[in-house]
Design brief:
240 residues; alpha/beta; Rossmann fold; 6-stranded mixed β-sheet; 3-stranded antiparallel β-sheet; elongated
């Protein structure tokens, strides 16, 4: 792999029951960069993530740098409101290191406070995971993803179902992780304002084919958006 690339994808194709979902995708990601994957519903964005994680069969080449650790935050993770697990117990499913749990929560924007408060019933660590707000739960999932100090974070619409204030907080957090921790961020987003503000590169896909790949300011032209979203292009215009 050349230069500072952490990922190189060549001629990637995925099909289910003879139907091409992704076909001959080619793109690369540099270490410490941010890539947004955009496209209409059903374009294959989540399928791409599953392929990058090695969860489904594919043709072509997905070449990660050797020894890379990858974490993934799904678009949705439904939790039963009656689930008895606390936030601490949930995170302990991945690590028993209490200091690491405190650290990743703090990094994810959840204050844990002084040690003498950890026994309190209302403390975040002791709250039932099914009773936290949507924004809090998304930050908890990010904390989960940060356990083990990954090199790459994959986020499938990381702010789905979160209010505007919470959305801004999450994207600011992703930028901070990239800038301060040197993490590589690959995310799916439907919001072009977010893409322009937070992504260094963008990959546009639409039902098997790649429409564009490059810097947002360069490749997201009106004709590209029309090819990507068709008649819905108006809904995706940005205020750049």
């Amino acid at each position: 792999m050349e230069g500072n690339k952490i990922l190189e994808v060549s001629d990637l194709s995925v099909s289910f029951d003879g139907l091409n979902v992704l076909e001959n995708l080619n793109f690369n990601v540099e270490k410490g960069s941010s890539l947004a994957v955009i496209g209409p519903n059903g374009a294959g964005k989540s399928v791409l993530f599953r392929a990058l994680l090695g969860l489904i069969p594919y043709k072509g080449t997905i070449d990660w740098s050797p020894g890379i650790k990858i974490s993934y935050v799904p678009q949705r993770l439904e939790i039963e409101r009656t689930m008895p697990l606390t936030v601490l117990e949930f995170l302990k499913l991945k690590t028993e290191n209490f200091e690491e749990i405190k650290e990743v929560l703090e990094v994810a924007g959840i204050k844990t406070g002084p040690d003498h408060e950890y026994h309190l019933e209302q403390h975040v660590l002791n709250r039932k995971i099914g009773l936290v707000s949507g924004g809090e739960f998304q930050r908890i999932l990010i904390a989960w993803a940060l356990i083990g100090s990954p090199d790459v974070l994959l986020f499938d619409e990381p702010t789905s179902g979160i209010d505007v204030g919470g959305e801004q907080t999450i994207y600011n957090l992703l930028t901070k992780l990239r800038q301060e921790k040197g993490m590589t961020i690959i995310l799916v987003s439907h919001d072009l304002n977010i893409v322009y503000k937070y992504a260094g590169m963008v990959l546009c896909i639409n039902k098997a084919s790649a429409v564009c790949f490059g810097h947002p300011e360069t490749v997201l032209k009106p004709e590209d958006l029309t090819a990507l979203y068709g008649g819905e292009a108006e809904f995706y215009k940005h205020n750049h």
